[in-house]
Amino acid sequence: MSVFQIILLVVVVLILVGLFAYLIRIVPQAKAYVIERLGAYHTTWNTGIHILVPFVDRVANKVTLKEVVKDFAPQPVITKDNVTMQIDTVVYFQITDPKLYTYGVVGPITAIENLTATTLRNIIGDLELDETLTSRDIINTKMRAILDEATDPWGIKVNRVEVKNIIPPRDIQEAMEKQMRAERERRESILRAEGEKRSNILTAEGEKEAMVLRANAKKEAMIAEAEGQARAMERIYEAQARGIEMIKDANPTKEYLSLKSLETYEKMADGKATKIVVPSEMQNMASFLTSAREILVDDAAKDALDEVIKPKKG
User: Which segments constitute the Band domain (predicted)?
Assistant: First the structure.
């Protein structure tokens, strides 16, 4: 085999390999190929191996079937109360029909962006500034419903729309910051006042409990002291009762009883009392002293009684 034949064989093999590679197409997962035949839509290839007819068929578009996330630039919008602000959105969509996506609109992503901007302006135009700042969920829901319906002819399903940032003018931002600062200070003052109130309540409750405890302790001490005094008085009265009982059992003489009475009068007139008690039976005093002399054994005491009795006898 000559060199020319070898070169020709190699060229033929390369052409066949290239043609085979061109004709055999593998569609990966989550992809779809739109095929045109002689310039018109022919079919849509899904995941798998497919054969392309040379010079007749061509791949018009390769479409991803996964969910696509597009973050659009901030758009100037005007609220109902004529406040201009910047709002940017994030759109989550998915291609459900590759044919409609390919032939339904020129530049589907640009079309979605413009549709999002106009829809956002229409919705914000019906809201005031305060409503716009506090109604993100309402705005998201309305935009998703409108965009999903508008993109159906394009083979697109809008799954979710999120308002990412709402940027009001600088002067309004400063006013909002002042308002939030004032609100935080007000809440701080309320919390501080509530804390002081709670502290005062706890202090008062503590003082109340302490006073109750002191009062209970004082009461118990007084009760214990009174019980002690009562027991002491009972012991004294019991001792006196036993003494009286013993004297009664001993059957004392009249003279002894008179002497004990005299001792009692002596104690009562010891100088501490403010009154002097004088016996009513003064006429019997001499006989009482004579009887007392008889029971005394001390000579000095007898002599003292004689000095008292003698004037009576004279």
Answer: 22-180
Do 71 and 43 belong together in one domain? no
Task: Please enumerate in sequence order all residues whose Cβ is within 8 A of that of 99, keeping only pairs 6 or more positions apart, or say none.
Answer: 34, 41, 44, 155
The 3-state secondary structure of 15-31, one letter per residue = HHHHHHHHHEEEECCCE
Residue 38 lies in a domain: yes
Mean pLDDT throughout 122-147?
A: 90
**Is residue 64 within 8 Å of 31, Cβ to Cβ?**
yes
**pLDDT for 58-100, tens place per residue?**
999 999 999 999 999 898 999 888 888 999 999 999 999 999 9
- E-state strands within 75-138: 75-78, 84-95
* 229-256 pLDDT tens trace: 888 888 887 887 777 777 767 666 666 6
> Is there a single domain that holds both residue 73 and residue 149?
yes
Cα torsion 290, 294, 296, 298: sign: positive
Q: What residues pair up with 37 in beta bridges, in sequence order?
A: 40, 57
CATH number, residue 109 = 3.30.479.30
Angle (CA) 71-165-86 rounded to 5° is: 95
Looking at the structure, tell me whether residues 46 and 71 fall in a common domain: no
Range of the domain at 45: 3-59
Per the prediction, the chain carries an average pLDDT of 81
Distance CA 240, CA 235 (A): 9
109 and 147: one domain?
Answer: yes
